[in-house]
């Protein structure tokens, strides 16, 4: 109890230095917690943007289709797959797609595009096609067509305008043309989507390609998104064969996985830099305190105080500063983080690796962020205090008096 009182008194002897050191530790803790929350928020936004746009959380497709997007590589025996997906408890929703390169021609211009044949009711459950629609109505009949706003500008078309779609059938490789009307305009965000994609009715696409009941992609949304990247997921094992592939979003977009790994590495580097800077401040503060009390240490040692007791006093002072900094820092980080979670931080819309980050970024504040950062700060402060404590413990009374003069 006596050593605790002495530690408190020593910290209060120079309140300005103690306050500045606590401010340094508190600032490092708050910045680390908030930056970690921001990075987690950005990572989740990237994954959400990827899986909610068109990729979905997983896909089932013909082997080799994603490498070439060849319309002839389609799944022809789709009834068992539909039944399997409908009965699987892990699957929340799925959508079938038919995809083919095509040419769109208006009265004013032509443009090469990728056509998606979709069932709108299925599609809105696995992608954000409904949220991306800025004008018009969804696909309700075989002659309806949706296209991106950038593509509509290039073709100089609007709602209700006629547009001719030309593609080649899979069976016979014959050119097929069909007249559509623009029923809606979309804005997904990335230019490669809004410039190059158009959507028509699933059955209309099948008729044009002459593939019967065939499907190029089954896009899946799970009850728990984390299951999508399980290599041994039972659904994948049942589906995969020599012709059929099934992969989660991380395998479909490995570049995003690399970016997420780099984000985690960046969080580690940021934490080390911040806390090392704080540690240098602690060392400086403790040594200044020691040099001011050299005469006291000389006297206490001369009357028989053991070195380990002095070293323990220095470590305890550092611990008290760390605990005070953690208490204040956690409160500040909690209230600031809560505000940012509600209001977001406006940084403007960004595009990272083809993934659109919304204009307002909201951090994701987790309990483990507060716990890990707090324990790390306390541990690093104690570790930093060991060298000054050993220095104070080893100094002899004669040397202490000599240096204090």
Instruction: Note the run of SSEs as H and E.
Output: HHEHHEEHHEEHEEHEHEHEHHHHEEEEHH
* Number of helical stretches of at least 4 residues: 16
Give the beta-strand count.
14
**Main sheet makeup:** 6 strands, mixed, barrel
Assign the structural class, choosing from mainly alpha, mainly beta, alpha/beta, alpha+beta, or little secondary structure.
alpha+beta
The protein's oligomeric status is: single chain
The rounded distance between the terminal residues' Cα atoms is 32 Å
Mean pLDDT: 85
Number of domains: 2
- Strand % is 15-25%
With strands numbered from the N-terminus, the spatial order across the biggest sheet is 2-3-8-5-7-6
Poorly predicted residue ranges? none
Helix content: 55-70%
What is the structure about, briefly put?
With 405 residues, the protein is of the alpha+beta class. 56% of the residues lie in helices and 20% in strands.
């Amino acid at each position: 109890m006596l050593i605790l009182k002495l530690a408190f008194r020593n910290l209060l002897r120079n309140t300005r230095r103690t306050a500045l050191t606590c401010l340094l530790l508190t600032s490092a803790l708050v910045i680390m917690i908030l930056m970690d929350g921001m990075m987690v928020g950005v990572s989740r936004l990237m994954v959400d943007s990827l899986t909610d746009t068109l990729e979905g959380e997983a896909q089932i497709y013909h082997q080799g289709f994603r490498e070439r997007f060849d319309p002839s590589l389609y799944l022809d025996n789709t009834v068992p797959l539909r039944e399997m997906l409908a009965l699987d408890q892990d699957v929340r929703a799925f959508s079938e797609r038919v995809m083919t390169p095509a040419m769109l021609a208006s009265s004013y211009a032509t443009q090469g595009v990728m056509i998606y044949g979709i069932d709108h009711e299925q599609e809105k459950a696995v992608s954000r096609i409904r949220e991306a629609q800025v004008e018009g109505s969804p696909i309700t009949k075989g002659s309806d067509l949706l296209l991106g706003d950038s593509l509509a500008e290039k073709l100089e078309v609007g709602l209700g305008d006629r547009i001719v779609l030309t593609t080649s059938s899979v069976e016979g490789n014959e050119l097929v043309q069909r007249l559509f009307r623009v029923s809606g305009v979309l804005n997904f965000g990335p230019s490669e989507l809004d410039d190059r994609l158009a959507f028509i009715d699933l059955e209309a696409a099948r008729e044009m390609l002459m593939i019967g009941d065939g499907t190029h992609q089954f896009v899946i949304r799970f009850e728990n998104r984390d299951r999508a990247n399980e290599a041994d997921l039972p659904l994948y094992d049942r589906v995969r064969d020599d012709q059929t592939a099934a992969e989660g979003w991380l395998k479909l977009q490995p570049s995003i996985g690399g970016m997420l790994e780099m984000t985690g590495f960046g969080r580690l580097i940021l934490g080390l830099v911040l806390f090392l800077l704080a540690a240098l401040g602690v060392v400086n503060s403790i040594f200044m305190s020691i040099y001011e009390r050299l005469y006291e240490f000389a006297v206490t040692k001369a009357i028989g105080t053991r070195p380990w007791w002095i070293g323990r006093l220095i470590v305890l002072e550092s611990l008290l500063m760390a605990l005070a900094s953690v208490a204040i820092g956690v409160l500040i980080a909690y209230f600031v983080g809560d505000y940012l979670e509600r209001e977001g931080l406006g940084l403007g819309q960004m595009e990272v690796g083809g993934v659109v980050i919304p204009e307002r970024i909201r951090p994701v504040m987790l309990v483990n962020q507060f716990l890990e950062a707090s324990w790390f700060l306390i541990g690093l402060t104690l570790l930093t205090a060991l060298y000054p404590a050993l220095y104070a413990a080893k100094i002899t009374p004669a040397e202490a008096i000599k240096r204090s003069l």
